[in-house]
Amino acid sequence: xxxxxxxxxxxxxxxxxxxxxxxxxxxxxxxxxxxxxxxxxxxxxxxxxxxxxxxxxxxxxxxxxxxxxxxxxxxxxxxxxxxxxxxxxxxxxxxxxxxxxxxxxxxxxxxxxxxxxxxxxxxxxxxxxxxxxxxxxxxxxxxxxxxxxxxxxxxxxxxxxxxxxxxxxxxxxxxxxxxxxxxxxxxxxxxxxxxxxxxxxxxxxxxxxxxxxxxxxxxxxxxxxxxxxxxxxx
Length: 234
Prior knowledge:
By secondary structure, this protein is mostly helical. 56% of the residues lie in helices and 7% in strands.
């Protein structure tokens, strides 16, 4: 079994404590001149993200932009997501349903924003990060939440609408049973009188779909998982 190794200049950058703006320029020019296009590129990005404790804003933007673009636009089904994509996203960026970093949560949100179709399972996962922040005080959203409160804030309202804006139409947010269940859990964990007033409007708009989403399946894997998985734990 071959061992995954970073090529130059990524191998040099990976040895640094902090990713700086000039490192991103170097990576864009030499390591990924055409952007992220292969599973090896994905593995390299994940290895870099995991090996450097401190990261500049330029890295965060590069990481989100490139990985989201690859997952949505350069894997089947191009321009959209299906169950296989979602399973891979969950496997790579969550631990027991928890998105562990704010950067990985931003990646998931951006994937959803640029995809023409998003399975309800991924929206439910994203919304559950709000519940986890409120009830358990854990997760990537907890790390980016401005106020540590057991009630819905304006930031939480904006976060929720970022997840569901694409399917909100005619004053209705039609959701799957999984998404609906997370909304109900958040309602039970918070006091209506303490929540931001816009939250009540969101809950009033939420409706359970009459029919479940069609299951989409395929045999083609999103990427070669083995080098990617090794990089993720490096």
